[in-house]
Design goal:
It contains eight helices and twelve strands. By secondary structure, the protein is an alpha/beta fold. The strands form three sheets. An eight-stranded mixed beta sheet has the order 2-1-3-4-11-10-9-6. Helix 1 (23-31) links the parallel strand 1 and strand 2 (36-38). The protein is globular, with a radius of gyration of 17 Å. The relative contact order is 0.17.
Amino acid sequence: FAVEVLPSSWSRVLVLGDGMRDPEIVGTLKVLPGAQVINPLMQELNDRALALRDAVVLGTSVFSDPQALAAAAPAIARAKVLMVQTPALESLPVDLSQALARMGLQMRGRYATVLGPNPPAFSKFPVNAVASAGLTAPYKALQLAGTLTAESSNPMLLNVAASGSCRSVLQGVYQSVPNLPGYELPLVAKCEQGGRRFVISGMEWADLVPQTTMDQKIVSRWLEEVLK
């Protein structure tokens, strides 16, 4: 029998995207250091490419190209942990969208639509970990920059059913009336089914901006906690 030795650079986290010069990929590697990048249009996602991967991450660059999304289908179908991070969740493959709906996760709508016609600036939409999610608490809520990709300025808000197998992980808070509790609007949800985990993000994680130097590594810490 033959034994194939994988290179030392092999990573258990695989990021699918345009390539190393893509700003989205550059940002993603800053918050997911050590991950490996494959362009699904340039390299087939066969058994070897997916061997020993614990998590596969897809972002806006894949979802903005129907051919790239189609080429990513083997990874979407097989990943033990699948993370989708893009506001363009309306482009989810139909079978994946239907599976998530059965687990209790649906798309609520884009930020500008749900909070329109005059959506608040991101400075008035603090993003934080949901208390029950078990993530490390930041010193201060984060903000979305809205600048990483062409989609970043209009994130997708989620609906997470209380009775399903999905749970909110990160949420933004919209306070329409001063001094009253704000509306908690999920941005990221984690779903579990059949031994697989789905981390569905209506924003790109690299678009999150810590508001204090004490939180400089909080996004990387959160990603470790949701992907492990």
